[in-house]
Amino acid sequence: MADQGISRDEPGEVPKQFQNEQASAETSTVMNVLGYGPHIRQARIEAYKAWARHSTAKARGIVTYITTGSKAEGLTSYLESDTDHLIVPESVICLEDGVDSSSVPVEKTIFRSCSRISYSGHYRLLLERCGTHISDVVYNALCDDGFGRGLLSSDLYVTQWLNLKQGEGTVQHERAGPSTPRTIRVLDVDYVHALHFYCPSILTRWAARHRYWPSPDVVREVVSLGAFVSPVGVKGSDYEHVEWRMCFNTGENVLINNLNDTQVKLYVLLKMVKKDILKPQKKEVTSFTVKNIVLWIAINNPHSLFHERSLFHWLHEGLYALRVAIDTKELPYFLIPGRNLMAACALDHVQKRSWIATIDEMMTEGPRMILRLPKIRQAIIAHPEPLRWFSGRKIENEMLELICMNRLALGMDEDTDVIIQAINSRQKEILGRFG
Q1: Is the separation of the CB atoms in 242 and 291 below 8 Å?
Q2: Residue 306's CB: how many other CB atoms inside 10 A?
Q3: Is 196 in contact with 94 (CB distance < 8 Å)?
Q4: What is the pLDDT of residue 235?
Q5: How many helices (H) does the chain have, and how many strands (E)?
Q6: Which site in 125, 138, 152, 256 is 20 to 30 Å from 25, CA atoms measured?
C-alpha cells in the first residue's frame, strides 16, 4: 500500500511534504466548481442567517428561528436536501443543577435539568416555576414525576406540534427523532421545537480543554451562544418519553463555519462516503457522526497542516477515524466527550464487517478512491468548459432562489414585487438554456 501519510525528518517534527499533493489540489479545484468553494458557501450561510433573522422578527419575541444542518453550513443547494430549523420559545428556560434562578425574569417558565439515571447529555426537565404566561403546548406536555412535581414530557411536546393544523400546501409527516418534518410545496423542512438551556459548567469544561483549534475568540463565541435541549430521549431507555437531549446547534454552526477550506472539503467528502458508499439504512452512521470526526481531527492537529495539497492525507485520516468508530462503536461527542455517538446505533456484525472491508479497500486505493463518489467522478470525466458553464448557471440560479426566499420572508408579494419578478424572468432564461 502506498504511504498516504506525511514525511518527517524525525518523529514529532512538522511534516515536510504530503503524499498525493497534486491530486489533492486538483480535487479541491473540482470541488470549487461543484459549489463547495468558500465564496458560494459563505453566500449560502449569509442567506439562511438572514432568513432566520426575518422569521424571528416576524415572531415578535415569541420564538427564535435558527437554521441548522447543511444549509447553515453552506454545503447544500436550495432543494438538494432537507432544510433544518430550530424553533425556540422565548418564554421558557431550562437551567442546569446549581444555577441560581432568582435573576430569571418572572415572565419566563423555569425548568430544572435532572441528569440522574439518564445517559450523558440527556436530561429530565422538572418544573421549578411557571411564568406569568405558560403556553398551551408546554402546559399540555406536563406530567407528574410520581412525587407531585411537574415533569415535561418530550413525547407529549412533539405530539402537540405534529397535531397542529397545517396551512394550504403543507403536508405534515411522521415524527423523526426530535423533528416534525413537513413538505411545504416542493421544500422538505425539518422543524425541531427546542428549549433554551443555560449550562455554564458544561461549556466551561469544554472551553478549558487543550486544543490547536479553534481560536480563543471562537471558543468564547461558542460559549456565549449557550445550549438547547431537544425533545428526544435515549432509544430503549425506561425514561425515553420524558428525556431531552442537550444540543449546541448555534455553537456547532460557528465551529463548522470557522473550519478552513480543506477541513470543510474533508467534511464534504466524508459525507459523500457516508451517503454514496456506506448508504446506511437505519442511521447507523450519520452526517453528525462525520462532522464530529472532522472536528476532532481539527482540534488535535496544527491548523497550518490543512491546505489544498494535503486534502488526501486528511481524507485518509478521516476514513481511518470512521473505521475505528464503526469497529469499536465508540465516538465521543465533540462538545460532551462523555456522550458516545455510536452507543445506540443499530449496527449488526455483518454490516460492520462489510463497511470496514469497504473502508480498508478505499484506504489502499489512494487518490483513486475519489472515483467511487458519483458527484466527483462525473465532474472529473466531464469536459472542463461545459462543466464550468453548467455549474456557473446552476449556482446563479441558486443565488437567485435564495434572494427570492428572503424577499418572501420579508413579506413581499411574489406577484407584485419587482425584484421577485426580475428573478423569475432571469431564472426562466437560465432554465431555457438548459432545455
Answers
A1: no
A2: 22
A3: yes
A4: 87
A5: 15, 15
A6: 256
The C-alpha cell at 174 is 411522521
What residues in the chain have per-residue pLDDT under 50?
Answer: 1-14
- Architecture in CATH of 60-249: 2-Layer Sandwich (3.30)
Tell me what pLDDT residue 246 has: 96
Cβ contact 415:56 at 8 Å: no
Angle between the 311-328 and 21-31 helix axes, to the nearest 10 degrees?
Answer: 90
Residue 216's alpha-carbon distances to 32, 109, 263, in angstroms, are 29, 33, 19
pLDDT at position 176 is 93
Helices (H), 210-310: 216-225, 249-257, 261-272, 287-299
Element housing 244 (H / E): strand 243-247
Beta strands 122-129 and 243-247, pairing class: antiparallel
Beta strands in 90-201 (DSSP E): 92-95, 109-114, 122-129, 142-144, 150-152, 170-172, 179-184, 187-193, 195-198
Model pTM above 0.85 = yes
Tell me the pLDDT tens digit for each residue of 3-57.
333 333 343 444 556 789 999 999 999 999 999 999 999 999 999 999 999 999 9
Rounded Cα gap, residues 216 and 218, in angstroms: 5
Q: Where are the domains of the chain?
A: 60-249, 384-434
CA distances from 4 to 320, 367, 416 (A): 11, 9, 58
Can you tell me whether residue 179 is helix, strand or coil? strand
